[in-house]
Every structure is written in structure tokens, then in C-alpha cells.
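Researcher: Re-running this chain for the archive, since the previous output was lost when a drive failed. Same request as before.
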Amino acid sequence: MKIISCNIGGIESSYKKSDLLGFIKREDLDIICFQELKKAKKNIEKLPNELINIPNYNSYFFPHQEKGMHGVGIYTKIKPKNIKNGIGVEKFDHEGRTQILDFGEFTLVNVYCPHGANNNYLPKQLEYLDYLKEVILEMNKEKDKIIICGDFNMAHSDLDLSHENKRRKIYGYLPAQKQFIDDLIANNFIDSFRTIHPNSKKYTWKGPKNNWRLDYFFISKNLENYLKKADVLEKEELSDHNPILIELEF
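Model: Regenerated C-alpha cells:
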């Protein structure tokens, strides 16, 4: 089973400017998770039909309820048994930041985390992560296998960002931000990419000065033996983020 995740930077923009549909067909993906749809709820139905109804895929969108920003969406060949939009916190659910799909054999969580690029935005990011962690850890008590993916807007280790001086204060790499990932790992989740590539430097977002690995697949520890591949698709340019991929063999 092949799953990709990508901050698409506007689904219609990516559709027009990149080979988005060709990429999906070429990679023969089972599940596709997108973040940052940049389409308000009222405009989702106005997307091109070939983008809404991709052959062999079911599509599920959770956009911002009012504005053309944020939003998450999933295309899947495997029909889910249950779909939950949001984490039960109105101010974050209004922005369309989280989808939870129950496939029976596993549960998939698609995440677009607020950024914490400065003191003004950091509290919102940390609050969202606290709520998300609560939902995930509660789910972890009931669900056997969980896959969490998306744009988390943070680096976790020195390998995940290219800044020369990593000891100075860097928003997106603060201890309070990294704590979320530390807590997932402490509760029997693994970073898929880092499991396969413990020392590799690959980045999912490349800025004018520095590069970051902001996008992740976290999977339940009991899925580790099923994990066959995890990678950053650096040659694919669907947006300003590179897609990330995992392959699981059940």
C-alpha cells in the first residue's frame, strides 16, 4: 500500500501549474493526503470535475468553512468505514485542519498544523498540538494501527533543518514545538522516514536561505514490520513542498 502526503499549496493552483494528475497516475498511489487546499467550503464543488472525480478514487475534502486558505483533503482507492472531520475544537475545525479516516485495518489522520513562525503565532500552534495529541493518544487506546501524516510546520532534529547555528532560537525548532513529536515517540509511534533513513538529510520545504523537513508520517510502533519504504520525493514539484511517501505491506 502506497500513501503520499503533501502540502499542495492550493489544490487548484497545483492542478494548473504542475503535473498533479499525471503524478497520481504514475505513482499508482492507494491513498493521497493533501494539506493547504486553499479552497473555501462553498468553492470546493467548483473545482474541475477531473480533480474531484479522479478515476478509481474516492475523494473527501475538509476545507476552511469560509476562506480560501488552509483545508485538508484525501483521495483513496480504499473506501473508509468512517470519516471524522476535525478534532472537536471549533476554532481549529473551522479552518479545516484535521481528517480522521477509519479503514478498519488501520486509522489515518491527515494534519495541517498551524505554523509557529513567531511569538504571535506560536501559542496557536502549541494549543492545536495539545488538542491533537489528546485526540491521538485517546485513539491509541482503542485503535490497533494508526498512521498520522501531514505538514507539522516544525523540524524535530538537527538533521531536519539546514541552519548552520542550530543552538540559537529558531521558531519551528523550539523545545516546546518539538515536544509534540517527542510525546508521540514516547507513546509508541515512530517517524517513518527517520526509521528507514536514520542519518539522511532530506528536506520537504526549501526556502531562500534554509531548508526544512516539515512533513512527516508517524505510524504506530506495531506497523514498523510492515514498513517497506519511506522517502521524500525531492524531484516532484507539486508545490513549494515535496511529497512524502510510505509503503506498507500487510
